[in-house]
Structure formats: structure tokens, C-alpha cells
Design brief:
- This protein has 17 helices and 20 strands.
- By secondary structure, the protein is an alpha/beta fold.
- It folds into three domains: 169 residues, FAD/NAD(P)-binding domain (3-Layer(bba) Sandwich), CATH 3.50.50.60; 153 residues, Polyamine Oxidase, Chain A, domain 2 (Alpha-Beta Complex); 94 residues, protoporphyrinogen ix oxidase, domain 3 (Orthogonal Bundle), CATH 1.10.3110.10.
- Strand 16 and strand 17 form a beta hairpin.
- Helix 11 packs antiparallel against helix 12.
- The longest helix has 19 residues.
- Bound molecules: flavin-adenine dinucleotide (FAD).
- The site of flavin-adenine dinucleotide has 37 residues, from helix 1, strand 15, strand 19 and helix 17.
Length: 459
């Protein structure tokens, strides 16, 4: 018997789920038929690379950490060339009190660093003596202030949260947004003790598994993943419908009926995987279960804008405030419009032609969501004014690009884990699967990992 599966959403979550389903079905000798419905006119979702005059510009994600193995494994299986970040990219900065200060990477540089005051460093040193909490969840801010002190939150964690979630630490859940940190306290009673214990273990692992924690990407940008997956899926007989406009799902006699108005399709499926954002999934299941639909709607997203800009190398390097490295993050307390800046072509050299540098400025997020609603021209102006002010840069870029996401990154708020548990429980009841960055990890790598697990579960 053939299992007829529909996948709704052709981002990395949906495409990698289709890939693993085909792989597992072959391994297990099962018969499946897959159809992908994508709302837009191209696949990839947030993964989108623009090629412009020799520049490789990422509109969304630009890579993954080598400690997250799923994308590396997938890239190898698809015969894609992985590139590693430049050594200089290990230098990361935070913008504090008018200048870029290097974020300390080890205990010695931490003691010498100017990021925290002596008072802040002493407070942080008390961490192993702070009793663990037995609360079911806490906001990131509550957790960090309790364990590491307010200064560590304001100067180190807040900018990091802006960099990952474009989020608000006073609303994000520590348990869902940073599950590993949450577990460290549970397991070791202290973050510092836990990190020391893990470091010891890693030393042993390192001998066999190689180095971890470097930023990786693909030679021609992350969209290579999408093209390779699309080719593989088409060759494997997967049907892909773009510009899809699906009506809410209907269920009859145990099967789902999907009606795609734009593509003139009405078909029945045994199983539906919703790999679109939670708010889109909410609409699609509204006729199946009202409560499930409401729960999905509760997952909030933060808006984010990305301004890519290219400078002549000599112009950028002559700016007094500029420092070579990965880029910098801006804490909320600095009261700026931008969240941070990535020096893309200093991380991956081939992102700009020789003699030029490509940067990407992030704006908006939970701090200033209203910024993302402005005209692109205005967003570019705000971003450039701030960049020039921070780096003390007088020259203009040779070009700019602006990409806006009104619902860019899921914001895992307090008790997100309970919300997800309930969504998955109801999903199981109706033979529906939910898989996207809205549930168990916002990173690109998390989506690929979850896709493989889901394929295993289904087959
Ligand atoms: C600006 C930005 C920078 C980022 N940087 C990084 C980074 O450096 N590293 C990292 O790990 N992660 C990063 N991320 C996060 C990463 O991009 C995402 O986690 C990942 O791409 C999400 O993939 P997804 O398939 O779950 O969702 P999406 O990419 O959102 O894909 C969902 C798909 O569903 C489609 N869809 C929506 N509604 C419907 C419908 N009704 N019917 C059919 N299809 C529908 C959409 O069009 C879309 O194609 C970044 C995100 C943003 C926005």
C-alpha cells in the first residue's frame, strides 16, 4: 500500500523532511508518494541567497555551527562543498559605551576584558554558590539575573539574544529558548560547574570527533541546500507545487482533503505535515480542531529587517571605530536602532569580490518592531546612519539591499514547552505533524535535525 503524504511549506524544514522520508522509505522498502505545496513562487522560505555583481548575499541565515551536526551530514550526502569561517571571525564584539569591545572567549581574557566591571565580574564569580531554582520555567532575564547578575544580562546575554532571536529576554523562556543552559542548572546546580564538566568531556570527545563550534556554510551560499534538495526530490518523483493557495484542511473517512485553488488540485492524503509557520498552520487546521488552531496562533514571531551593504575595503578599514572580525552586537541599554552587524565577507571571504567588504545590518526585533514596518528606503537610511556613527565611518556604501520579515523569527515565550506539548498531542490525535522552527529550535540546523527525527517517526 502507498502512503500518500502532503508537506505544506517548502522551507528547509519541509524539504529536508521530504528528503529523509524518501531515504528512510528506500531503506525500509516502504512505498510513499510525496507532494509539496509552497505558497511562494520559489522554494527555500527564509533560506534565500542573492547573487549580485560578484557578491553572495544571504537574505536570511548564513550558516550553522559545526557543533550542530545535522546540516553537515546533509550537505555531505548531497555532495555540497562546505566552507569554514575565516580564523579572524572568532573575534566577536559588543558595542558598549561608544566602542567595539571584544567578547571574551576564555577565562583569562574574561578577567582582562572590559565588557564587565569588577563588580559585574565578582557577581558572576558567585554563580556556583547560587542555589538552583525548582520553577517549571523562567524568563531568560529572570534566570540570568538570578544566576549571573544584572550586568551580565545587560552587557553579554541581551545582545546575544538579539543576535539569535531578535528577542526580548524579559519575555523569552529560558527552558525553550536555551534548553542546554536550562539543563546545566538542573544537572550540575550551576552553569559554571556544568560548563567545566562539559569541557572535560569534550576534551575526550575531541580526540575522536574533531573540533566543534566553527561557523560553516556552503560555497555559493545556503541556497545551494535548497537547489540540491529540489533536484533530489524531483528526481525521486516528488511533486512540488509553487504559488499554492490551500484552503483549510478537511477530513473525510480518515483521510485529508487538500484543495489548492491556484494549482487547481483537490486530492486526498493519508498524512499531512505542516512545515509552514505556526500562524499559517493555525489557519489550515481551523476546520479540524478549533483549540489546536488557537494554540498554534499563540506562538508569536518577531519582525526583523536585514540591510546588506558593500563598501570598498579601504573605506571600511580606514574607519576609526572598525575592527576586523565576525561583527558586533548592540545591547538594548545602548538605546540604538540596530541589533547588530555581521561582517559577512570577513567571515566567508568569497561573499564579496576582492577589494570589497559585504556587511549585513540587523534591525527591528522585539526591541523595535515598528522599524520593520517602515519603507525600505527609510530602513536603509536608519541602518547606515547608525553603522557610520558606530564605526566612525565617513564613506558611503557602493550599494545596499533591504529585506524585511514581518514575522521573522519565532519568539519562544514563557511555558512555550507546554504549548508545544499540547500542539503535538493534538497533532498525534489527528495524524497531523508540525515541523518548523516554531517548535523546538529556531536555528536552521534544528529544522534539519527535527526533519530526520520526524521521518523516522512516520516510517
Ligand atoms: C533574517 C534571518 C536571519 C537568520 N539567520 C540565521 C542563521 O544565521 N543561522 C540559523 O541557524 N538560523 C537563522 N535564521 C533562522 C532560519 O532561517 C530558520 O530557522 C529556518 O530557515 C526556518 O525554516 P522553516 O522551513 O522552518 O521555515 P520557513 O523558512 O519560514 O519556511 C516555511 C515555508 O512555508 C511557506 N508557507 C507559509 N504559509 C504557507 C501555506 N499556507 N501554504 C504553503 N506554504 C506556506 C513559506 O512560504 C515558506 O517557504 C534566520 C532567520 C532570519 C529571518
Amino acid at each position: 500500500m502507498i502512503m500518500n503524504i502532503a508537506i505544506i511549506g517548502g522551507g528547509i524544514s519541509g524539504l529536508s523532511t521530504a528528503y529523509y522520508l524518501i531515504k528512510k522509505a528506500k531503506e525500509k522498502g516502504k512505498n510513499i508518494k510525496i507532494t509539496i505545496f509552497e505558497k511562494k513562487d520559489k522554494l527555500g522560505g527564509k533560506v534565500n541567497t542573492e547573487y549580485y555583481n560578484g557578491f553572495i548575499i544571504e537574505k536570511g541565515p548564513n550558516g550553522w555551527l559545526s557543533s550542530k551536526e545535522a546540516p553537515t551530514k546533509l550537505a555531505k550526502e548531497l555532495n555540497l562543498k562546505i566552507i569554514e569561517a575565516n580564523k579572524n571571525a572568532q573575534k566577536r564584539y559588543v558595542f558598549l559605551n561608544g566602542k567595539l569591545i571584544r567578547i571574551p572567549e576564555d577565562p583569562i581574557s574574561f578577567i582582562l576584558s572590559q565588557v564587565l566591571s569588577w563588580k559585574g565580574k565578582l557577581r558572576l564569580a558567585l554563580e556556583p554558590f547560587i542555589k538552583p531554582s525548582n520553577k517549571e520555567d523562567e524568563t531568560v532575564a529572570e534566570f540570568i539575573i538570578r544566576r549571573l547578575g544584572r550586568e551580565a544580562l545587560d552587557k553579554l546575554l541581551d545582545p546575544m539574544i538579539a543576535g539569535i532571536f531578535a528577542g526580548n529576554p524579559f519575555r523569552l523562556s529560558i527552558r525553550s529558548a536555551f534548553p542546554k543552559v536550562w539543563e546545566l542548572e538542573k544537572k550540575y546546580g550551576s552553569l559554571i560547574k556544568g560548563m567545566l564538566a562539559l569541557k572535560k568531556q569534550r576534551k575526550i570527545e575531541k580526540a575522536s570527533a574533531g573540533p566543534t563550534g566553527n561557523l560553516l556554510s556552503l560555497e555559493k551560499g545556503l541556497y545551494e541546500f535548497i537547489t540540491a534538495l529540489e533536484n533530489f526530490l524531483k528526481e525521486s518523483g516528488v511533486r512540488i507545487f509553487l504559488n499554492s493557495s490551500l484552503l483549510p484542511l478537511e477530513k473525510r473517512e480518515g483521510k485529508y482533503i487538500l484543495e489548492d485553488k491556484n494549482n487547481n488540485i483537490e486530492e486526498t492524503f493519508d498524512r499531512v505535515i505542516l512545515s509552514c509557520p505556526a500562524f499559517a498552520a493555525s489557519k489550515l487546521v481551523s476546520n479540524i480542531d478549533k483549540r489546536l488552531s488557537e494554540l498554534l496562533q499563540e506562538i508569536k514571531y518577531t519582525p526583523i529587517a536585514v540591510v546588506a551593504c558593500a563598501f570598498k575595503k579601504e573605506d571600511l578599514y580606514s574607519a576609526k571605530g572598525f575592527k576586523e572580525g565576525f561583527g558586533f552586537l548592540v545591547p538594548y541599554k545602548e538605546k540604538r536602532n540596530i541589533l547588530g552587524v555581521l561582517f559577512d565577507s570577513l567571515v566567508f571571504e568569497n561573499r564579496a569580490p576582492k577589494g570589497y567588504v559585504l556587511l549585513r545590518i540587523m534591525l527591528g526585533g522585539a526591541r523595535k518592531p515598528e522599524l520593520v514596518l517602515r519603507e525600505k528606503k527609510e530602513i536603509v537610511k536608519i541602518a547606515l546612519n547608525e553603522l557610520k556613527d558606530i564605526l566612525k565611518l565617513s564613506k558611503d556604501p557602493i550599494f545596499t539591499r533591504c529585506y524585511r520579515y514581518l514575522r521573522g523569527i519565532p519568539h519562544y515565550e514563557l511555558y512555550h514547552h507546554k504549548l508545544v506539548e499540547e500542539i503535538f498531542r493534538l497533532g498525534k490525535k489527528y495524524n497531523l505533524s508540525f515541523l518548523s522552527n516554531a517548535y523546538a529550535g529556531v536555528a536552521f540546523a534544528d529544522c534539519i535535525k527535527a526533519a530526520e527525527s520526524l521521518a523516522n517517526e512516520i516510517l
